[in-house]
Write a structure and sequence with these properties.
Blueprint: E1 2-8, H1 29-49, E2 54-57, H2 59-64, H3 66-74, E3 78-81, H4 94-112, E4 118-119, H5 133-139, E5 144-145, E6 167-168, E7 174-175, E8 180-183, E9 186-189, H6 193-198, H7 201-213, E10 219-222, H8 224-227, H9 239-246, H10 252-262, E11 265-266, H11 268-274
Length: about 280
């Protein structure tokens, strides 16, 4: 079984620390409508295929859209934390990190009525210099984390020497890293977001088969605007960011349809339980 996961955030809100985006596109009715519509379409799509997934939800979004979060949980999907605001943890103080970990978990549990076991940092913002944050995640009551990208060379995220597959940390926290593939001695990102849209489907299939041959479970991650129909057009994006964020959005569902036929997908907690980690 592989994991289907979604980071529940707005298109512009998710880029707030990377580029200058119009203030009116964030934390307003337009962003909330975008998230709500795209998540509703995602739930309908997953229900068609009988797939359950894990939704890493921002605490701020849960505060503003509690009915949506309850619906996700009621349909059998797992609710996990994506922090409170979409802000990179390695830019925060110890007190701010503690607050966002505990505050987001509390609001998500209160709204969903479920026990929140998992956490994923915005922009996968735990790096080689801030691995102590994993202890803070464990101390905040989480049982697993999915923030580490076992790569190097990316300008925002990456932990070069971390294990590429599920493992338990000395503090007891389980780490479910983002999926990678090794090419010529280098690990490169494989199965999430823009990588899933930009790589040809044949490449994705080969990567997935290689992961399965190794006896591992892949971690797919996606965003609401990559599966739903609403994606704001931001005029001041550079051409690399336009490529990264807009290309092949219309193919995402079709690609997942083909993968759902041949492979089994589930929630993070399903995968971890099947492998004896929870």
């Amino acid at each position: 079984m592989h994991c289907f996961s979604m980071d529940v955030e707005g298109f512009c809100g998710g880029m707030a620390e990377s580029i200058s985006v119009p203030a009116e596109t964030m934390a307003g009715p337009g962003e909330l409508s975008e998230i709500q519509q795209n998540v509703a379409e995602t739930l309908e799509f997953l229900d068609t295929w009988g797939v359950k997934g894990t939704f890493f939800v921002l605490g701020r979004v849960a505060d503003l859209l509690p009915d949506m979060v309850r619906m996700i949980a009621q349909e059998g999907h797992e609710i996990a934390s994506h922090s409170f605001e979409h802000l990179r943890l390695y830019n925060m103080s110890h007190e701010q990190i503690h607050d966002t970990l505990t505050r987001s978990r509390k609001v998500l549990e209160d709204v969903s009525g479920t026990h929140v076991k998992g956490f994923r940092a915005p922009d996968f913002s735990i790096n080689d210099q801030t691995l102590h944050i994993l202890d803070m995640i464990q101390e905040a009551g989480y049982r697993y984390d999915s923030s580490l990208y076992p790569i190097q060379g990316h300008d925002v995220y990456g932990v070069r020497d971390t294990e590429p597959w599920i493992y338990r940390l000395p503090n007891g926290l389980v780490e479910y890293p983002l999926s990678t593939v090794e090419v010529a001695g280098w690990r490169i990102p494989a199965l999430g977001g823009g990588y899933f849209r930009l790589y040809p489907l044949t490449v994705t299939r080969r990567i997935l088969r290689r992961i399965e041959r190794g006896g591992h479970s892949a971690m797919f991650y996606i965003h609401p605007y990559e599966l739903g129909t609403i994606c704001p057009l931001v005029s001041n994006l550079s051409w690399p960011r336009r490529l990264r964020h807009y290309v092949n959005r219309g193919k995402t569902k079709k690609r997942f349809c083909k993968l759902f036929v041949d492979h089994q997908f589930g929630r993070v907690e399903d995968v971890l339980q099947s492998r004896g980690f929870l």
